[in-house]
């Protein structure tokens, strides 16, 4: 059962809780998600089943959009509302322009320190397991990309923001670092992922109403083709095929069954003078039904 599901993760569920629920609901073993959401967070979680669990890396290429409420005035051990207060500040309202300038400084490619309590692994162990009782292990900084941070509203001490960023970015770290920059502390009160690429939480179902998206809507940034039956069989056997007088814009293509009903393979495109060679990168089925 190769499918992709858009799920609006409820608060209190871990991403693995959702995976486990989907496994039980559909009665299948191969299920995976394409990007973790913290238990207190809500919003879009993309879940893949069957051989489509091998699509995870492709979804990581997409930018993600979050809406979040930051609260100034405290540092917390988890950098969010679920944590214990580490330090509380007595501060006067901070001017709007100062907040704007501070947040803008995080845009672009930056070095970011992940939260001390997170799913980030250090020497094979999750930080939340290593640091839950006390801070024992400090994570290494990672390079992340933040495309844009918009302030949707500001009513001190709360800031509502919309952040568009790349894979691996921690919104909690942005809040914590903002608190350090403003010298007043800051943590995340609420967090909701609204988009992954062009996929929107508005089109997502809940975990009790699973709806697979059409295969033609999977990885739409890649060109799509329906080769003839002979070439399709070769691709499904893992062999390269040559398509004469054929050109595509993307570096990889999606190979479909007739009428784009079923995604069969992802192929690397090697451009030639009079056509292209398709080299199978991922094959999801071995035959056409």
TrEMBL record:
InterPro entries registered for this protein in UniProt: PsdUridine_synth_cat_dom_sf, PsdUridine_synth_N, tRNA_psdUridine_synth_TruB, TruB_C
Entry's Gene Ontology molecular function annotations: RNA binding; tRNA pseudouridine(55) synthase activity
Enzyme Commission no: 5.4.99.25
Residue span(s) of domain tRNA pseudouridylate synthase B C-terminal: 172-212
Domain Pseudouridine synthase II N-terminal: 23-171
Catalytic activity: uridine(55) in tRNA = pseudouridine(55) in tRNA
Active-site residues, record numbering mapped to chain: 38 (nucleophile)
Top-level taxon in the UniProt lineage: Bacteria
UniProt entry tagged with the keyword Transferase: no
Keywords assigned by UniProt, alphabetized: Isomerase, tRNA processing
GO biological process, one term: mRNA pseudouridine synthesis
Alphabetical list of PANTHER family matching this protein: PSEUDOURIDYLATE SYNTHASE TRUB1, TRNA-PSEUDOURIDINE SYNTHASE
Family indicated by similarity: Belongs to the pseudouridine synthase TruB family. Type 1 subfamily.
Entry function: Responsible for synthesis of pseudouridine from uracil-55 in the psi GC loop of transfer RNAs.
Name of this chain's protein: tRNA pseudouridine synthase B
Species of origin: Thermotomaculum hydrothermale
Upper classification of the organism: Bacteria, Pseudomonadati, Acidobacteriota, Holophagae, Thermotomaculales
Name of the gene: truB
